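call fold(seq) -> tokens
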Amino acid sequence: QVQLVESGGGLVQPGGSLRLSCAASRSIFSIYAMGWYRQTPGKQRELVAVITRGGSTDYADSVKGRFTISRDNAKHTVALQMNSLKPEDTAVYYCNAVQFEGGHRYDYWGQGTQVTVSS
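ret:
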């Protein structure tokens, strides 16, 4: 198992930047993929960005060119740099880790951090 703790959320004006960080309770080297999801009231949680163990990344179309995901295996952290923020980016952001063991997929989640983009 792995525990995840997010930090870095807050209130920012449109066009501003925030950097979210996710700290894992143990090494993330063996974790297949880590990502960021977001959720707003009444909507399903959606994938924002993901990075695999090999370093491959993928992004939701709505954030491409504005957000960057990175991982630091030595520090057991994953970060999401968010630039040119828009009001529609307002959501609770969750860190996710995916691990495969014995042919089964296991998903681990953080508690979430609120990001509010407003003037």
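The first strand starts at residue 4 and ends at 7.
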